[in-house]
Every structure is written in C-alpha cells, then in structure tokens.
Amino acid sequence: IRSIDSPPSRNRFASCHSSQSLTMVLALRRSLAMSSRVANRSLGMLHQQQKAMKHTHTLVLIRHGESEWNKKNLFTGWYDVQLSEKGNKEAAAAGQLLKKEGYTFDIAYTSYLKRAIRTLWHVLEQTDQMWIPVFKTWRLNERHYGALTGLDKQATVEKHGAEKVLEWRRSYNIPPPDLDTSSEYYPGNDIRYKDVPKADLPLAESLELTAARVLPEWESTIVPSIKAGKNVVIAAHGNSLRALVKHLDNISEDEITGLNIPTGAPLVYHLDENLKPIPHKDAIAPLSAFYLGDQDEIRARILGVKNQTK
C-alpha cells in the first residue's frame, strides 16, 4: 500500500536537491569571477613589468685602465699620461668581459685624455664595435688636481699630513691649491683646449667643481642619446665618473667621499624610463649599478684605490 505522504516527500527531496544545486552554481560563479579578477590583476602586473622592461636603458661606465702615473702613485689630473702595460690589459679584459656578457653599444663618449680614449679603443675593439660614433669632450676629463699635479701621493702625505691630503683628494667641495699658469701642466697652453674659453679652464677643482663641468655635458648630450633608446658607454676617469654616479644615485656629499671607482672595471647601470637607476642585486652600496667581473677582485681593486695615500 503506497503511503499518501510519499509524493510530498519526493517533492521535498527534489526541492532540497535543487536548492543545493543552485548554491553550488552560485559558488562556482563566484569562484570563477574571483579567479578572473586575480588573473586580470596578474595580467595587469605582467603588462606593467613588461612596460618597465621595455623602457629600461643600459648605461656602461668604465674608468680607464691603470696609467703610468697611477702605477707611480702620482697625482695625474689633466696631465695626458699613457696607460701602463697593466692598464692596457685591464682595458682589453673589460672589453672581452662586455663581449662575453653580450653588451652592445650604439654610441660612446670619452674625454680628451689618451688613457680614457685608449681604454675605449680596447673596449670597442674587443666587442667588435669600433665603427660606432665616438664623441670626445674635455668636460669628461679627470678632476684637475691643481698644484698637486705630478707630485707623489705618499710624499705629499708626508709633507702636508694624511688628513689634509685626504681632504684634497676626497672632500666634495675643497679643491687643492691652484696650479700656476707658468706651470708646464697649465691647460691653457695645450692645443687640445684651444677652442675652450680660458675662463672655463680650471686651475684646480674639487669634486663639486668637477660635477659642475661634467653634468652639463650629461644633460645636453648624453641624456638625449639614452632617451633616444641608444645603449651608451662612457670611458672616463675616477672623479668625472664619481661626479656622474653621485648625480645618478643621488649620493650625499658625505657618502661620496668614501666612494672609490676601480680602474678597468665596467660599471653597469639599468635605468628606467625617467633615467632613474634600477637597483641591481650585485650592487655595492651606495651605488645602484653593478660591476661586471669577479666581485672579490673588484673589491680588491676598490681597496687599492682607497689605499693610494696610506
């Protein structure tokens, strides 16, 4: 005998089953919607990362290889000394390293001084890019060491004291004593500066004065090349490069006094679309850039520069 309550029981079961199914469908829809939003956010982040990568610029700075006066531990400044045998090898090795790591350049900048020019030659020869445009400018010259030019660094310490010489070498705004215009090192008598107004030729420079000379060239000539999408290499000098990295990394006047740049070591900057440095995991503070090569050897070279007047 069939119970008269059976049909209502089946209806209740069907109603319950339908309600559960609807709940599951709604939950599935919410889950899919959430997944879609997450996917869209991830895709948006990926697009932003790709956009950032698209607008990244590469800038390579390299201090010239060891010069004959570096080797003798003399103040060099604007004196046009040759690379030493070791310096030629350092420069060639830098070029080989850049070649190995796949760096290519569209344009190069250097100073009027042969130690930087020859370093650039080595780099371009080793990377098989000697055909690219090269622009030379006196504004990328080394800091002018004034009356210290040609003097032995250690002998100068013994005469004037380590504190005073360190102040001349590494302070931001204190220049060494002026060079006399009768000196053989006076740039006003050098034919390569014949087109430079005499008033612009320094008799001595602090790092601050060096920056005032370097940065107009950076802003007017080099920045437009980078913004045009060109890969740029600059072969210059310890202090003209210190002035430039201070500007790029917004390094304080106190911090820049302790920053030493080694000879013949490529320093690589990755810049965003606003030419702000993108910090690299191998950067040595306070720089955002990183040196190519064996990092222990790089640190040893940096220490060697630091100890030149010890």
From TrEMBL:
Name of the protein this chain belongs to: Phosphoglycerate mutase
UniProt: substrate binding residues: 63-70, 76-77, 115, 142-145, 153, 169-170, 238-239
Any Gene Ontology biological process: glycolytic process
GO molecular function: phosphoglycerate mutase activity
InterPro entries, per the entry: His_Pase_superF_clade-1 (IPR013078), His_PPase_superfam (IPR029033), PG/BPGM_mutase_AS (IPR001345), Phosphogly_mut1 (IPR005952)
Catalytic-site annotation from UniProt: H64, E142
Catalytic activity: (2R)-2-phosphoglycerate = (2R)-3-phosphoglycerate
Residues the record marks as site: Transition state stabilizer: H237
HAMAP family: PGAM_GpmA
Keyword Isomerase: yes
Listed EC numbers: 5.4.2.11
EC class of the enzyme, as a word: isomerase
Superkingdom in the source lineage: Eukaryota
